[in-house]
Write a structure and sequence with these properties.
The chain is an alpha/beta fold. The N terminus and C terminus are likely disordered. The strands form five sheets. Strands 7-5-10-9-11-12 form a six-stranded mixed sheet, sandwiched between helices.
């Protein structure tokens, strides 16, 4: 059998003269158990039991024991395990063996804390300690918070099982679990909310929005801190969504659009941009513009936009950056009627014949966020929209999404089955693209989709230029009748 502690001449107590050498005794105890690997398995089992019971208790079963492991157990527990492949050791037996060794006075819990170099707690104790630490960091964050972020912190405190708390805890676990990351995120969240441009109002230059990179630099010193794909970028998105939801609830708003025309359904890819803009944050808009003619607009103070008035007076189209549209309070067009086409070449021809009695816009393929934002303003002014696109799978789906999105009166312009006969081309549509036609559900477009699926050939706007120009001929005819 292995070494027996009782043979060291120490039974039921420490050797005389060493009662004050606690640290030395603890070091010897730790060394004893670390030199015998079987006790690592045993003590890990007792640590798991401690988590459940909140005390040193229970029984641990060791399986597939080697001969050397059996000997080490026999030497400490003073029990015969000869020939056994497994052994069950109770907490009571372990502590009894401790008290009968030179380590008398050291408890089972003491051994666990020595061996694993950390305090041992039951799950209930751990939860209580963690709750106290969370309360402390929430209190510290609130002391530095502004009015808006203080309400956010109160909500986190009151709704710990949902929303931000699980996210903060997960981020903290990923960073090591010492709550330093949680506290950093709380402080960062408070700074973000209190600095949102929509809350602070125009800056000294009159800007009501901030570019994302500029906002990130103001908050963190790093313009890329909130870039797409970063953890803090996702965190910013959560904070913005909370802000928009709260402000709309306070204003009695009923969602972004309400009903069947929600942005989520029609253009889900733009949802994040829309939320950010409501908070006053703008993504880079170098390539995000609306191509239009005949637009009148007013800024947040109700002052007419002189540049748009000038382009209308000159009868010229203009590319309007997203940042400009984001600063408008309202927008309209002559006659409260807007004609929109999908293709730039058709738009150019229309602009060449434009009589300034309506508005013209070009989507240039899939709609940009800037164009959707302009449509929001036009809907608020009661503008009637007529949209015409290619009669192919992509064109019909664009028309359907715009119709779902627009909050005013909307018509598909020369996109009926009869129009398809005028613009049909020789280009065959692949089976994959024809499959897309199954998503066309709008009654105004479904018959066209069926005709397209039957022929298998695409129809293009360029083949109907004379038809589109009829809008200006009708105006001329009306003018002649009036004279």
């Amino acid at each position: 059998m292995g070494e027996r502690l009782a043979e060291d001449g120490v039974v039921n107590g420490r050797p005389a003269g060493e009662s004050s050498e606690d640290e030395k005794l603890q070091a010897e105890c730790l060394r004893y158990f670390r030199e015998r690997p079987v006790f690592g398995k045993l003590l890990r089992g007792f640590r798991e039991k401690y988590l459940s019971y909140g005390r040193f208790a229970g029984t641990v079963t060791l399986k597939n024991l080697k001969e050397s492991e059996r000997e080490d157990l026999e030497g400490f527990l003073l029990r015969n395990y000869h020939g056994k492949k497994s052994a069950s050791v109770s907490a009571e037996r372990f502590e009894k063996a401790l008290s009968g060794s030179r380590f008398a006075g050291i408890s089972g819990k003491d051994v666990l804390e020595l061996y694993f170099r950390e305090p041992v707690e039951g799950r209930k104790e751990q939860r209580q300690r963690e709750d106290r630490r969370w309360t402390a960091i929430l209190d510290r964050a609130k002391k530095e918070a502004g009015a808006l972020s203080a309400r956010w912190i109160d909500e986190i405190s009151e709704m710990q099982s949902s929303g931000f708390m699980p996210y903060l805890k997960r981020r903290d676990r990923e960073a090591g679990g010492n709550l330093d990351e949680a506290e950093r995120l709380l402080m960062l969240g408070a700074r973000i909310l209190d600095a949102l441009p929509a809350e602070k109002g125009p800056d000294p230059f009159g800007m009501t929005v901030r570019y994302l990179a500029v906002f990130a630099a103001e908050i963190t010193g790093n313009p890329h801190a909130f870039d797409a794909g970063t953890k803090d970028g996702k965190y910013l998105e959560m904070l913005v969504e909370w802000y928009v939801r709260r402000t709309e609830a306070e204003a009695g708003a009923n969602g972004e659009h309400g009903g069947k025309n929600s942005l989520d359904r029609a253009f889900p890819a733009f949802r994040k941009q829309k939320l950010f803009l409501k908070a006053g944050i703008l993504s880079d808009d170098v390539s995000n513009y609306a191509l239009a003619a005949g637009i009148r607009a007013c800024d947040r103070r109700g002052k007419p936009h002189a540049g748009m008035e000038g382009f209308l007076e000159e009868g010229e189209p203009v590319q309007i950056p997203l940042s400009v549209i984001a600063g408008w309070k309202s927008a309209s067009c002559p006659g409260k009627r807007m004609y929109i086409v999908e293709n730039p070449s058709v738009y150019a021809v229309l602009c060449g014949k434009w009589d300034r009695k309506c508005g013209l816009m070009c989507m240039n393929g899939q709609p940009r966020f800037s164009s959707l934002l302009l449509l929001d303003l036009l809907a608020q002014s009661g503008t009637e929209v007529w949209y015409g696109g290619d009669i192919d799978p992509e064109g019909l789906l664009i028309a359907q999404r715009l119709k779902r999105y627009y909050q005013g009166e909307f018509h598909c312009w020369h996109m009926a089955a009869a129009d398809y006969e005028m613009c049909i081309s020789a280009e065959e549509i692949s089976q994959k693209r024809q499959k897309m036609l199954e998503k066309v559900e709008d009654p105004e477009l479904k018959e066209t989709a069926e005709a397209l699926q039957k022929s298998g050939k695409a129809g293009y706007q360029e083949n109907m230029l004379q038809v589109y120009l009829e809008i200006f001929r009708r105006d001329e005819d009306r003018k002649g009748e009036e004279s």
